[in-house]
Amino acid sequence: MQTVSYTSTSLHETERLGKRLALSLQGAPIPFVVFLEGPLGSGKTTLIKTIISELASIRKEAIASPTFQYVSLYKGRELPIAHFDLWRIPSCDAFFSLGLDDIITSSLSFIEWPEKIQEARLQASLIIRIQTPHPDERLFEIENRSDIFSFG
Questions:
Q1: Quick check: pTM over 0.90?
Q2: Which H or E run contains 132?
Q3: Cis peptide before 29 (omega within 30 of 0)
Q4: CA separation for the pair 52, 109 (Å, rounded)
Q5: In a 3-state reduction of DSSP, which class is residue 96?
Q6: pLDDT tens, residue by residue, 109-120
Q7: What is the distance between the alpha carbons of residues 112 and 124, in angstroms, rounded to a whole number?
Q8: Backbone angles phi, psi at 128, to 5 degrees
Q9: Rg of the chain over CA atoms, in angstroms?
């Protein structure tokens, strides 16, 4: 298990991190699950939008957070991509009854608020923890739990 830290003091730096992560995720094995943990407004969605934009050749403006429908699906150049926002999901049971777990088995999945479905015991290949020590600063801790992923 490898952990890398990255500090961002601007939107541009966060997007640069997203582009680096996208390069590392090209050709990831399916399923590949990325948990994003951090407080509201910490930059989870911004990071995911940049990664998806790079992997699927979609403008960032066209990528919306799936807060109300729980998941958005994208056709990446090399692999299917799922962006989950579980902030509003009522329970782990709802996650399963909606069939959201089936999407994970066939995609590169980014999951915001994974603690909402902790009981599902999903295994993350990568965990990105975001802290906000100051209003304009983000500390990203990237924990690699996969033998295949390499953050370059």
A1: yes
A2: strand 126-134
A3: no
A4: 10
A5: helix
A6: 999 999 999 888
A7: 12
A8: -115, 115
A9: 14
